[in-house]
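name: query_chain
kind: protein
chains: 1
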Amino acid sequence: MNEPANEHSVVEVPQSKPGRRLAFAALCFCLGLILGIAGLKVWLATKPPVPTKFWSGTQLDGPEVAFYPRSSPDGRLVAFHAMVDGISQIGVIWSFK
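structure:
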């Protein structure tokens, strides 16, 4: 008796060569690396520049050396230890809050 060909038929699938598989993996890796570097360059180029902080001050008359500044509980005064002509003194100034 003839049996149907579908029940016991075997289909062989051709195996790819290991060298081709390795070459494909290397190609994918290189393309991913190139795309990643290009994306990083674009991202860094489109980032806004970090603004530089600007600070200015005016040197006032008074002692050249001051130590241990402490603010008052209400934050309006600042007391400090100052050296003027080799003599230890206590200074008090208004803070600018």
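note: Residues 18-48 form one domain.
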